[in-house]
Amino acid sequence: MRSLALTLARTRVGDLWSRLWSAPPRRQDQLRWLFAPDLLTFGYALRTTITSLVALGIALWWELGSPQWAALTVWMVAQGTRGKSVAKARWHLFGMVVGTICAVALVAALPQSPLLFIVALAVGIGLFCFVGTLLPGPATMTNYRIHGMRASGFTYAIIALDGIADPEHIFQIAMARATYIVLGIVLESSVSALFQFRLGERARDRLTHNFLTAIDGAARSLAALLAGDGQVLSRARSVFATITTLSDQIEFAEVELGRHHGHEGDHARAALARIAVLLSRGLDLAALMHMPGGVPADGFHANAEGVRTFLLDLPARLESGDVRPVLDRLGALRAACRQSIADSLGEEMGSDSRPPASADAAAVLQRQRMLQHGLDAMLDDLEQAIIQFEASLHPLPHDHFHYRIRSFRDWQQALANSLRASVTIFGAGVIWIATGWRDGLTFLMFVSIVCSLFATLEKPALATQAFLTGALWAVGVSGVLVLWVLATPSSYEMLALCLSLPMLAGGLAFAYPTIILAAVSYNLFLPILIGPANQARLDEIAFFNTAMPLILALWYAMWTFRLVLPFDTKGMRWQMRTGILKGLRLLARSRTLPSPLYVIERNVDRFVRLLTNAEQTPEPVVDAYLQGILSAMTIGLNVIRLRAVLARNVLPPQARQVIEEMMGRMAQFSGRYGGHYGRTARAAKLAIQRITSEAGREANLATRMEMDRALSSLNVISYELDTNQMFFDAASPYLDSALG
Predict the structure, then answer these.
(1) Phi, psi (degrees; rounded to nearest 5) at 354
(2) Contact (CB, 8 A) for 464 and 558
(3) CB-CB neighbours of 734 under 10 Å
(4) Cα–Cα distance measured from residue 101 to residue 321, given in angstroms and rounded to the nearest whole number
(5) φ, ψ of residue 351 in degrees (nearest 5)
(6) What is the rounded (10 degree) CA torsion for 673, 677, 679, 684?
(7) What is the CB neighbour count within 10 angstroms for residue 101?
(8) What's the CATH number where 207 sits?
(9) How far apart (Å, rounded) are the C-alpha atoms in residues 295 and 468?
(10) C-alpha gyration radius of the chain
C-alpha cells in the first residue's frame, strides 16, 4: 500500500515536471493589460498618475486637511480622450456646486437631529438619482449628464457627513472639499490638454470613422437582403447597437472641435439616424419580398443587383472623401427604379396601341411595383444619410441645422432607482444610530458614495460587487504601503515615488473592459486608504478603522441592492412589450403623430436595452423579443405612412373608408385584456383585398400611385402581424413561458 502511494506521488510529480518544462506555454492574456499595454493605455495611465501626484503635492503644500480628495478627483475625471475628460469635468464641476450648496443647507437646517439628518440625506441622494435617470442618454458610466447628478450625490454626502460632526465650521469644510475637487479638475484638464495634438482634425476623423463603420454594417446587411437572405436584418444585432454607441460618442467629438465649430455633430447624429431609417426600409422590403405572390421578377432583380453592387462598394467610395460621384450613381439607381415603376403602370393600364393587362397580370405587376417602391424609398434614405455625412465633413456657412439628443424617460425606473438609493442610505444611517459605532459616519459615507454612483444603473448589485473586488485590492495594496513602505519616507518626493507604481497599475487596469469597475474602485479608494498628511502618518488602528467600514459598506450596499427593488429581467421585457402595444394603439388614434425618426430611435433604444440585459436569458426568448421590437417598429412606421396617405386625401372614398376601419381596429389593438389582435389582422387583409380590386378600375395615374403606396404599407403590416402573432397578441400566454 505504501509503495503504491509512493509510486502515485512520483507519477504526479513527473507529470507536473513535464508540464513545466515540455508543455507549451500557457496564455496569460488576462494579465496582458499589466505587462504588455498598448501605447495609448500606458500614456493615459502615466499622465493620470503624474497629475494625481501633482494634485496631492499641491494639496499638501497648501496644508489642506484631507489632501487625498484632490488625487481622488483626478482619477474620477480622467478619461482616455480629451472630449470625454472635458465633458466629464464640466458635469463633475456642476455636480460639485449643486452638492455643496445642498450639503451646507442640510447641515445648517438639522445640526442636532440625527434621525432627520439621515432621512434628509437619503431623500436628497434619492432625488439626485431620480433626476439623473431622467436625463438624456443611456444610464451608463460614459453618460456625463448622469455623472453630474452622481457627482452631486457624492459631494452632498462627503460634505454633509463631515460637517455634521462639526456643524459650526460647515462653511469652511464645504470650501475645503470644493477646493480639492476644483484643484483636481483644473489639473487634470490642464495636463491632458498638453498631450493633445491635432485635436480638431482627429475629432473630424473620428466622426468620419463612426459613419463609415455604421454604413459598412448596414450596407452589408442590406446587400445580403437583396441577395435573398430575408432574415439578415433580424440577425444584425450589432448594427443597431453600433449606431446607438457611435451616436452617444458624438458629443465628445464636438467638445474636441472647440467652441467655434459649426454643426458637424448635429449632421453626424442625423446621418447615423438616417442609417437606422435605412435599415427600417430594409425591413419593409424584406416583408414585401415575402408577401404572397411577391416573388421578384427580372426587372426587380436587375435593379436589386445594381443596388447590391453599389452597397458593397459604398464604404470604399465614401472613404475617398468625394461624395459627388456616389450621389450621381445613387441618382441613376433611383431613376432606374422609377422608370421600372412607370413602365409597369403603362403596361398595366395599356395605351392606344396596347390593351390593358388582364386581372392576374395586373396583380403581378402591382406587387412588383411595391418592391420597386420599397427599393426606391431605401435609396432615398441612403441619399439623405450621405448628404448629412457630407455636411458633417464640410460645414456649410450660416448653417443653423440642429439635431437634438433624444431622451426616452422611464418614470417608473427613475422612481425605483430613487427609492433603492434612499432605502439603502437610510438603513445604513439606522445602523449607525442604533449601534453608536464610532466609525459609523465613515461607513455611512461609503454607502452614500456607492448609492450615488450606482443606484441609477439597472443592475447596481453587479456593479457594487465589482467595486468590492477593486476595494479589496486597494485595501491590500494600501495595507502594504501604510504598514511597511510609508513608515519610512519623510518627504513628499519619496511619498510620490512609493505611490507611483500602484497608481500606474490602476491606470493600466482602467483600459481593460472586464475589470474596469474594479479598477475605478481601486483608483478611487487607494488615496483614501493611504490618507497622506503633512504632520502625521497613518497608523495601524486608523488604517483598519478606514478599511473595515469601506468593505462593510460595499458588502452592505451590494446585498441591499439585491433585496430592495432588484432588477427583474422578465419584468423589464413584459413592461417593454406592453409599452410597444400601447404605442401602436396611440399611433393609430393620436391627433399629433410623432416623426418616423422618433419611432425608430425609440425602438432602437429598446433593442439595445434588451441586448444589454440579455444575460442568462434563453436565446429563443431574446430572439423573439428582438424580432418583436423590429416588427413593431416596422408596423408603427407604416401606420404613420398610411395616416399620411389619408391626410393627402387622394384615395377614392371606398379605399379611404376601408383604411380608416383598419385604423379603428388598430386603435384597440392588443389591449392587455381581450386582445383584438385577430380583428386587426383580418381588417388589414380585408383592406388589401378591397384596395387591390378597386385599383384595377382606377384610371387616374396619381391615384393609382397613391393606392400602390397604401397597399405597400398594408402588406407590410399584414405580414408582420402574421409573422409575430405571439408577440402582438396580448391575450396569448406570457412570452417567456411560451418560449423559455
Answers:
(1) -145, 130
(2) yes
(3) 12
(4) 50
(5) -150, -170
(6) 150
(7) 15
(8) 1.20.58
(9) 59
(10) 31
Cα separation, 208 vs 555, in Å, equals: 45
Measured distance CA(181)–CA(41) in Å, rounded: 25
Looking at the fold, whether 129 and 47 belong to one and the same domain comes out as yes
pTM: 0.84
Report in angstroms the alpha-carbon separations of 698 from 348, 652, 660, 686, 727: 11, 9, 20, 19, 37
**Backbone φ, ψ for residue 7 (5° rounding):** -65, -40
- CA dist 470 and 454 (Å) reads 15
- Please check whether residues 175 and 210 belong to one and the same domain: no
Final residue of a structural domain among 332, 358, 393: 393
Instruction: Give yes or no: residues 715 and 656 share one domain.
Output: yes
d(CA 727, CA 733) in angstroms, rounded, equals 10
196 contacts 82 by C-beta, under 8 angstroms: yes
Q: What is the reported pLDDT for 332?
A: 93
Distance CA 737, CA 115 (A): 46
| pLDDT of the residue at 32 | 73
Regions in the chain scoring below 70 on pLDDT? 1-31, 33, 137-143, 197, 258-262, 292-298, 351-353, 486-490, 536, 669-676, 732-740
Check residue 259 and give its pLDDT.
62
How far, in Å, CA of 100 to CA of 108, rounded? 12
Question: Which of 546, 563, 580 lies at the terminal end of a domain, its last residue?
Answer: 563
User: Is residue 386 domain-shared with residue 472, that is, in the same domain?
Assistant: no
Domain match, 325 and 463 both? no
Write the DSSP string, 175-226. Answer: HHHHHHHHHHHHHHHHHHHHT--SHHHHHHHHHHHHHHHHHHHHHHHHHHHH
DSSP 692-703: HHHHTT---HHH
In a domain, 464, yes or no: yes
**Position 55 in a domain:** yes
What is the SS3 assignment for 89?
helix
- Separation of alpha carbons 599 and 29, rounded Å: 43
Tell me if 333 sits within 8 A of 307, measured CB to CB: yes
- CA atoms within a 13 Å half-sphere pointing along the CA-CB vector of 403: 23
**What share of residues in the chain are helix, strand, coil (percent, to 5)?**
80, 0, 20
Separation CA 266–CA 92 (nearest Å)? 24
Residue 274: other Cβ atoms inside 10 A: 25
**Is 631 a member of any domain?**
yes
C-alpha cell at 426: 437610510
> For residues 225 and 304, what is the distance between their CA atoms, to the nearest angstrom?
10
297-349 pLDDT, tens digit per residue, is 667 888 889 999 999 999 888 888 788 899 999 999 999 998 888 888 888 77
Axis crossing angle, helix 540-563 with helix 460-480, rounded to the nearest 10:
170
State the pLDDT at residue 6.
Answer: 53
Nearest to 530 by CA among 183, 157, 53, 152: 53
Residues 288 and 344 in one domain: yes
Q: Where does 436-565 have alpha helices with state H?
A: 440-454, 460-480, 492-510, 516-530, 540-563
Q: CB within 8 A of 43, min separation 6: which ones?
A: 195
Residues 127, 147: Cα–Cα separation, whole Å = 14
Query: What pLDDT is recorded for position 313?
Result: 92
pLDDT at 18: 43
Domain that holds residue 227: 199-393
Number of domains composing the chain: 3
207 assigned to some structural domain:
yes
Same domain, 224 and 311: yes
CA 344, CA 351: separation in Å to the nearest integer? 12
Could you tell me if 244 and 326 lie in one domain? yes
pLDDT in tens, 10-65: 555 455 434 433 334 444 456 676 777 778 888 888 999 999 999 999 998 888 77
The span from the CA of 28 to the CA of 114, in Å, is 52
Cα dihedral 322, 327, 330, 336, rounded to 10, equals: -130
